[in-house]
From TrEMBL:
Protein name, UniProt field: Probable cytosol aminopeptidase
InterPro entries found in the cross-reference section: Leucine_aapep/pepB (IPR011356), Macro_dom-like (IPR043472), Peptidase_M17_C (IPR000819), Peptidase_M17_leu_NH2_pept (IPR023042), Peptidase_M17_N (IPR008283)
Bilayer-spanning residue ranges: none
Function: Presumably involved in the processing and regular turnover of intracellular proteins. Catalyzes the removal of unsubstituted N-terminal amino acids from various peptides.
Compartment list: Cytoplasm
Organism: Streptomyces niveus (Streptomyces spheroides)
Main location: cytoplasm
UniProt EC number: 3.4.11.1, 3.4.11.10
Single GO MF descriptor: aminopeptidase activity
Comment on bound cofactor: Binds 2 manganese ions per subunit.
Start and end residues of each Cytosol aminopeptidase domain: 358-365
HAMAP family, per database record: Cytosol_peptidase_M17
Cofactor requirement: Mn(2+)
Gene name of the record: pepA
Amino acid sequence: MTALTLSTAGAATLRADAIVVGVAKGAKGPVVAPGAEAVDKAYDGKLASVLESLGATGAEGEATKLPAPSGLKAPIVIAVGLGTAPAKDEAYGAETLRRAAGVAARTLSGAKKAAFALPTEAAEDIAAVAEGALLGAYAFTAYRGTERKSAKSGAAGKNDSGVKQPLGEVTLLGGKPRDKAHKAAVERAISLTEEINRARDLINTPPNDLYPETFAAIATAAGKEHGVKVQVTDEKALVKGGYGGLLGVGQGSEHGPRLVRLEYTHAKAKKTIALVGKGITYDSGGISLKPPGHNETMKCDMSGAAAVLAAVVSAARLGLQVNVTGWLALAENMPSGTATRPGDVLRMYSGKTVEVLNTDAEGRLVLADAITRASEEKPDAIVDVATLTGAMVVALGNRTFGIMSNDDAFRTSVHEIAEEVGEASWPMPLPSELLKGMDSPTADIANMGERMGGGLVAGLFLKEFVGEGITWAHLDIAGPAFHEGAPYGYTPKGGTGSSVRTLVRLAERTAAGDLG
């Protein structure tokens, strides 16, 4: 993990491999953003014109590298675009700063130390830059090169892959190490981003190494480290408990399913929220096999469970005054002679029977069992997170997740929270007329309904398993959970950790009593 510190040192005197400054789009060309005054002075006040001569415009996502003048201790200056400059009485938005810091951190891959001189007037700015830098510096290199680990010691040999290591250290200029608000902002950013990057690591881990049993072991170790109680229900106990959804999805694999319960409690908590994550460690589609071209990234189908683990551990690390339980519904969906067939009927943990019309609609089956189990504890709210439907990607694209709920006010709150922390989302309806499409002549309900509005159909299916009187929301993160294109902002290629920030802020708002 990249180290991060605050410093009151001047940009001109700090020794580092590079200094990062902000540049925005002004009415007459690029303008240097606040925080870079000392750097601009070293260029005799002509940094903006130098950048313009190099083709810089200040657009978001832009990074311009130039040699530093003799007045600076660092040899390189990197100017990152902030987009359109705000009005005089306005500040740069948190997400703008977060993305710019991410671009800078990615650009500085392989460097040992960089000083960030971006606009940081308030603690919120410090938090945004810190989050962006630490998320942008992420790299998944565990499987690169010829590195081998000793079975006894776990010691790693030299990695000769040639892959650049993440930026080693970030120093935030303008931050005050003794300021309580600034210090708290950095500490929160470090805890939060470490857990987001834990989720990214899980998502990126190949499915031959990450399957229900090993995922449960990782969760157990994380819980032990951070004071979170962990209970693992193995395959034998799932059979005894009647968890037909988890068992039905997992019965085609040699790796049996697991249900993991995480528990963080606070002595002064007045509210309890339950987070439920879809944890399909690999999704082949089962007997309803996915077509060619759709299997290669299906290691990411446990992104919801990874997000829930990260959020619960974050709540514990931050000491939030709220009780948080996490439920990881873990299974591997594989085709074999023992796999569930289209037409089979499963008896769920709730007692409802489900006719399986398509074994590739498996996420809703494991979530249904976990939601029912979570409901038994009567939490104040349940939020499930899942890479659930391709239909949601068709509806909202690759960067936005959908939010459904049985309570309009709660759905609005979750949407506002997501937007606040910089995660693109959109509220979606649950039209009751779509329920008819899941009628089954054999069972209580089918796991498939109408093709049109498929993401909403899946939400309606899950709603059937929420305990009576419990507020519930469903986040379909199928689009933003795994990024296949080139990195942008603080978003890497591969697992993103989507929804973790939303879940953590939801826990913070609940702890503060802001959600009723």
